[in-house]
Amino acid sequence: xxxxxxxxxxxxxxxxxxxxxxxxxxxxxxxxxxxxxxxxxxxxxxxxxxxxxxxxxxxxxxxxxxxxxxxxxxxxxxxxxxxxxxxxxxxxxxxxxxxxxxxxxxxxxxxxxxxxxxxxxxxxxxxxxxxxxxxxxxxxxxxxxxxxxxxxxxxxxxxxxxxxxxxxxxxxxxxxxxxxxxxxxxxxxxxxxxxxxxxxxxxxxxxxxxxxxxxxxxxxxxxxxxxxxxxxxxxx
Length: 236
Ligand SMILES: [Zn+2]
What we know:
This protein is an all-alpha fold and 236 residues long. Helices cover 83% and strands 0% of the residues.
């Protein structure tokens, strides 16, 4: 195993930024693989540039919108459940403040503070902003910075689109005799880069991640190209 990440210890800010960056790299990776598979498959069946452009563009739009919608739904759900948890916390703080103080003390104690220091810290945190303290220590969330579902949706839309542009342009810009080579080479190179980046961002060793990512992309293009060629040979 590689050494564990230290993100948690740096608090939310760095961890959150790394998560965003990692999500962007993975979104771009998705855009590259799915669009490359699509255009290479169509290239197996036809030389028609208009058909390649149409397939690639449709794949880009369908993929980026489906990613955005999925992200919107999942972040909205997460936000709803965080808001519900905060509402419960708020009510408990109002209805049984002593029990909540005891709870916060115990949680701080479990994090390694002595009973006395934990008690003191709990009292001070409660005086300053009880809800924020409980949200952070008990639920691990910052009530002032819940993830915005629209931001998340836009980010994955853009990441996927950026990735999908590569195989699309590599397929439609070069002359017909070069388009397949240019696409395969540039896609595999890009996948080596995204595999390396996501491994580094996750503090994992990059070697195997690069290999897996490149192999996955090569497989996707190989399978769709075979399917396209078969359809072509069958005269469809
Ligand atoms: Zn609480």
